[in-house]
Amino acid sequence: MNKNPAKEATILKKYIVDASVFLFAPYALGAFDDNEVIIAKSTLRQITETAHKGTGESRANAIEFSRLLDSLFDSPGASVSLENGGLLVIAGHGSEDI
Fold first, then answer.
1. DSSP code string of 61-90
2. Which among 24, 59, 73, 97 could disulfide-bond with 54, CB atoms 3.0 to 4.6 Å apart, if both were Cys?
3. Count of alpha carbons within 13 Å of 92, Cβ hemisphere only?
4. Could you give the count of Cα atoms lying within 13 Å of 66 in the half-sphere of its Cβ?
């Protein structure tokens, strides 16, 4: 019985995630399974701004997400492995980073 390795191979998906996802659900990183999650630096700035100037639940979620990122990135770098087997990547300004 021949098995097709192409069918068995797991396809790694890349998700480019907007700030609104984390402002609504700060632990959403776990929902992307073992795929690559890409967050632009501009998204991080928006989350930081919401943590400082926002109000209500969005502000609380921004603060919680910032704490989560701090715990993941204990050393400088542009990417980190996630507990679910995925990869979190912080992308720069240009689309060439994505």
1. HHHHHHHHHHHH-SS--SEEE-TTS-EEEE
2. 59
3. 4
4. 16
* Contact (CB, 8 A) for 54 and 30: no
For 65, the token pair is 């997400």
* Phi, then psi, of 12 in degrees rounded to 5: -80, 120
Q: Is the pLDDT of residue 68 over 50?
A: yes
Strand partners, 16: 38
- Which residues, listed in sequence order, are joined to residue 30 by a DSSP beta bridge? none
E strand or H helix that includes residue 45? helix 41-53
Residue type, 6: A
CA angle 73, 25, 13 (to 5 degrees): 65
| CB distance 22 to 51 below 8 Å | no
Measured CA to CA, the distance from residue 45 to residue 54 in angstroms comes to 13
pLDDT at residue 54 is higher than 50: yes
